[in-house]
């Protein structure tokens, strides 16, 4: 798979919707694997095996570092979502308003359906409950905790889950990602993590559309 295709897959995963409960500031380290993914080994080797989610009050940041100098981050608060892309030193950003994302999600006839179950288990020392999410891409399991208070607006499929995701799958096309929390750090988070650096150039709506069209 071409590098552009992998970038597109991650963009699709990050395009959507984090709301965090008792711990209000810190970070979570996740292990990332790719079960049931119909990708060649060469392509899988370029994908990240680790990611970090930072959270503070109503803000969150989702970081992914890939091979060959490609880094992606998503910064979210109650009003906006910004996707940062650093591809071989070329730094661009896409900004979306949360109200617009919510309108698009609500207008989708194939909206996700969340079913809570009675199953529980501990993940990274936190009590978690299981929910099943039915999406247009199939059925996904998510384990979440109410002991962490954050903002899970980065994935629209999690909208009906009232807690912080600790283990979950995200799927698009040939790629399925499995993320599970390894360690939770209850530490001070610098405000600068939620500010877009000056060296990133924001893409217009037309430029964003053109970029996605090229990757199709």
Describe the structure.
This protein has a 12-stranded mixed β-sheet with strand order 7-8-9-10-11-1-2-3-4-5-6-12. A hairpin with a 3-residue loop joins β4 and β5. It contains 4 helices and 12 strands; from the N terminus they run αβαβββββαββββββα. The chain has 216 residues and is α+β, with helices and mostly antiparallel strands. The protein has a single domain (3-195), classed as Clam (outer membrane lipoprotein receptor (LolB), chain A), CATH 2.50.20. Helix content is 17%, strand content 45%.
Task: Please summarize what this structure is.
The protein is built from 4 helices and 12 strands.
Classified in CATH, the superfamily is: Lipoprotein localisation LolA/LolB/LppX
CATH class: Mainly Beta
Shape: globular
Strand content: 35-45%
Structural descriptors:
216 residues; alpha+beta; twelve-stranded mixed sheet
Topology summary:
Blueprint (H helix, E strand, L loop, with lengths): L2 H12 L10 E9 L7 H4 L5 E7 L2 E7 L4 E7 L3 E8 L2 E8 H10 L5 E11 L2 E10 L2 E8 L18 E9 L2 E11 L15 E2 L2 H11 L1
Parallel strand pairs: 6-12
Antiparallel strand pairs: 1-2, 1-11, 2-3, 3-4, 4-5, 5-6, 7-8, 8-9, 9-10, 10-11
